[in-house]
From TrEMBL, chain A:
UniProtKB keywords: Ion transport, Membrane, Transmembrane, Transmembrane helix, Transport
Compartment list: Membrane
PANTHER family found in the cross-reference section: V-TYPE PROTON ATPASE PROTEOLIPID SUBUNIT
Main location: membrane
Any one cellular-component term (Gene Ontology): proton-transporting V-type ATPase, V0 domain
Membrane topology of the entry: Multi-pass membrane protein
UniProt-recorded name of the protein: V-type ATP synthase subunit K
Family, per entry: Belongs to the V-ATPase proteolipid subunit family.
Domain of life: Bacteria
GO molecular function, one term: proton-transporting ATPase activity, rotational mechanism
Pfam families named among the record's database cross-references: ATP-synt_C
Amino acid sequence: MSIWDNLGLVYALLGAAIAVFLAGAGSAIGVGIAGQAAAGVVTEDPSKFAKVLIMQLLPGTQGIYGLLVGFLTLSKIGLLGGGAAQIDPQTGLLILAACLPIGIVGLISGKHQGKTSAAAIGIVAKKPDQFGKAMLFPAMVETYAILALLISILSVTAIQV
Amino acid sequence: MAVLQMQRISICALKKDRKAILEKIQALGIMEMNQIADVDDGFEKMDTMEAKVSFERKAQLAESALTVLETYEPEKKSMLSSLEGKKLVEKDAFNQVVSERDTVIETADLLVTYSKEIAEKKAGILKLENQIESLSPWLALDVPMDAKGTKKVAMLLGTMPGGTTLESVYEQIAAKAPEIEAVDVQIISSDRDAAYLAVFCLRQEEAQVEEVLRSGGFSRPAQSVGMIPEEAKESLEEEIQKLKSEIADTEDAIRGYKEDREKLKVISDYYRIRAEKYEVLGTLPQSQRTFVISGYVPAKAVPAIQKAIGDRYDCAVDVEDLKEDEEPPTLLKNNSFSSSVESVVASYGLPHKGEFDPTTIMSFFYVFFFGMMLSDAAYGAIIAIGCLIALKKFPRMSKGMHESLKMFMFCGVSTMVWGILFGGYFGDVVDVVSKTFFGHPVTIKPLWFAPLNDPMKLLIYSMAFGVIHLFVGLGIKGYMEIKAGKILDFFCDVVLWYAFLIGLLLMLIPSEIFASIAQAQITFPPAVNVAAKVLAIGGAVGLLLMSGRANKNPALRLALGAYDIYNITGWLSDVLSYSRLLALGLATGVIASVVNQMGSMLGKSVAGVILFIVVFIIGHAMNLAINLLGAYVHTNRLQFVEFFGKFYEGGGKPFEPFESDTKYVTIQESENAE
């Protein structure tokens, strides 16, 4: 039996790691971009703090989706409490593949949602009463992260261990 | 559930009652000013610009005085004070303060002057401190800095570049002017950038010595005082002390006016009201004896105006329905539950003239979807109870805030219901606590099913709710077209789409794709299958032929029809978009269970309990905050993009009545005009 036959669990854990770190990195970039814009607005008008903070938080959800998929994967492969399940390489790779959508889409959409949030913060700075509309633009980007999350969740839960 | 019917009301009255009538209308606050555009002969507008500006300036002055008071004597406020709303002031008390307005304005003036004085003195201190700073290297010098020396001996003060030592100065002098012998150099102090020198030499050689030193980088001090530096410093410090104590006195004086804060607020509002009144006054057409005032009033408020103005003054009140081309302001009227989401509709855009008010229908879907996305009974209870307490405790909060809190309260209740259906109470806290700390796991059974165990089932339901939501939207579009008498449009744009979509749905449900997602095979009787095909094909053909009906060219018409059928992809993506109901619901539950799991890591021990409590509070607070935001944003999105996209345009102008638009106080009318 070669070492390759024992790597199932490693692949699965790698999947969880990818989901968490790519999506988390996307959110970190996005929240960072939006945060710079938000800080600029608050220097001019501290009373808009609450509104721009909400805007800044919008790209933060991808990281949470990544965490969600990572957590589902960990509980699937039995790493959370109880012993790790026996996983053959094929199942491990299946789990890895299931984690990819939220990881990759999370990274890219997080960054772009951050840029959109920064632009929406510009709207709030000039026209605070248009908050409702401004919030919608970043939410549009998020749709695709949600779709990716959905596929990741469905695939992870569907794989039989 | 409706857009209130507006009517135009025009009042023609005597000029002597002008102010009284305007004040009455302002106090009622139910009329939006809209003067009939052109001024006829004999009518002209009064120039009130100057008066208005002067009132605004006074309001601004009171405002600045309040800022000054706030800086030196901050008002004690609780964290929730923003919820308190404007203070209620009796009309009599208001008039009492207004009668003292000149003294109050003087006070305001004084406060602003004080604050200017303080600013000037602070700048003065800064200047003095700079002087002390520039003196500090010379402190060791025990003669005045501008001392010229004695009859025979001259003194030169100045700086040389950093690193200069006594030896190097003597060397320079010896090298460049060997004939000079009587030179004494003292280094008063030195730092990294410069050495501070006092040089003594014979008076007749002064120029020569300075020349030599200058070639080595010598320069006279930029500032020189006619005193011994040490003494100069002391006197400067005394001056600073004096300024500081003066500032303290002025600050005390400012604090002495803290009792006037309320008066300043009232006066600021008083001038704001007057400025507004004069702004309207400036737009009124006036003749020598009469004036005309015109504007929009909600139809049901007309009798109130009739009673308050028409019966009391010599005037003619004319009420008329709106003309075809008039675009009146929009005011919505809904029941207590639905009115709480009016602000959400308004943030998209109020209905324009003749458009259906979607608030009531939207409010049910809004609360339903919000609860589904958050779906945790405990979180829902926290939100609902928190909002309820705030609503009860601060009954005078601003209207917008009141409506928002009410909306969140309803959403909290809905969240609680969904939480019970899905079995989420702080995620799985009951399981985790009972297992970790009491040894035997207890699970609260979900009333319906746990989404995490069967996500596909919830996905199907999410999309089904989505289809219902979208069909309702399309239905409203149909209703509006029927109401406008466009029967053909209704048939082509609405009925055909219904047929097409329902046919497709009925074809999809028995198919294998659906069966694999729903994990259940549904079989319809053959008649339904045939009906499904008939509906789908009939709808598609109808759309192909009819969508481009505005075009005469048959080829173009078919092409437009085909393009309209292509919109089916839009429907597909709209329905898929409702999968966020599942995704966000799962996110709440899963993060909550991550928190619980982290908290229970240390197991059953004292430290374990402490860790659990800390992690529980911080973790769930964060999870609640972030998912509350998510649920709010995405519920809005589902309404704005998917639902409104089917029928709603918006773009109405909000109703902005001429009223006492105050900032701090609400004046309670002693006589009720209703």
